[in-house]
Amino acid sequence: MNNKTLGVLALLGAPSMAIGIYVEDQFKPLANSWWTGVWGIVYITAWMGSMVALNRIGATGSSRFGRTLPLIMLGTLAIANVSNGWQLVAPTFKPTLFWALDMCWPLSNVLMLIYGITVIVANRLPGWQRFVPLLCGLWLPMALTSKFWLPSELGFSLVTAYSAVAWSLLALVILTNHRSGHAAAPLSHV
C-alpha cells in the first residue's frame, strides 16, 4: 500500500474516536460495548497507517533511536488493536490479560509524545508538518488536563474535537508530503 493510500485511510479514520465517543455519550448502551471495539479498531488502524507512512518518509531520522521508535510504536498500537478486537467480540469478558493489552492505548499516546519530539529534532518534515506529530502526542496530556480543570461537557467537546483535528492534520502531512506518492522502502530494521 503506498503512502497516498495510507494517508487517505488515516484521514478517514482520524475522526473515528471523536465520533465513537460522541455516539457512546448519546446512546449510553453502546458505551464500553462492541461499538467501542469497532471505533477503536478503525482509529488505531488509521494511526498505524500514519506511522508506516511517516516511517517510509523517514520522519524520525536515521539514528538508531529514530529507526527503532516507529517499530515500538507499531508494536504497542498492534497490541492496543488486539484489545479493541477483544472489546468487539467479548465486551463483557475482561480478565487481567485484557487490561494488560488495553494499557497499550495510553502507552501508545505517551510514545506519540516522544515520537513528536523526535520528529521535530530530526527535522525531516518541512515547515509546519514537523510539528503535527507532536500535536497528536499532546492529546493525552490535554485529555488528562481537561478532565481535572474543565467542566466535563466542555472538556469532552474540546478533547474529542482536538483528536479529530490533530489526527486529520497528521493524515494531511502524509498526503501532502512530496514522498507520499511513492511506495517507499519497507520499515527499517535495527
What key attributes describe this structure?
single chain; 190 residues; mainly alpha; 74% helix
Describe the secondary-structure layout:
Blueprint: H1 3-13, H2 16-26, H3 34-57, H4 64-89, H5 96-102, H6 104-122, H7 132-137, H8 139-149, H9 152-176
Helix pairs in contact: 1-3, 1-9, 2-3, 2-9, 3-4, 3-9, 4-5, 4-6, 8-9
Q: What can you tell me about this protein's structure?
A:
There is one protein chain. The chain has one domain. It is globular and about 45 Å long. Helices cover 74% and strands 0% of the residues. The protein has helices at 3-13, 16-26, 34-57, 64-89, 96-102, 104-122, 132-137, 139-149, 152-176. Helix 1 (3-13) packs antiparallel against helix 9 (152-176) and helix 3 (34-57) runs parallel beside helix 9. It is mostly helical and 190 residues long. The chain has nine helices and no strands.
Please report the number of helical segments.
Answer: 9
How much helical structure, as a percent, in the residues? Answer: over 70%
Distance between the termini: 22 Å
Strand content: under 5%
Please summarize the sheet with the most strands: none
Q: How many domains?
A: 1
Mean pLDDT: 90
Please state the CA-atom Rg, rounded to the nearest Å: 16 Å
| N to C succession of SSEs | HHHHHHHHH
Number of strands: 0
Low-confidence stretches: 180-190
Q: Based on CA inertia axes, which overall geometry fits? A: globular
Structural class by helix and strand composition: mainly alpha
Quick description:
With 190 residues, this protein is an all-alpha fold. It has helices spanning 3-13, 16-26, 34-57, 64-89, 96-102, 104-122, 132-137, 139-149, 152-176.
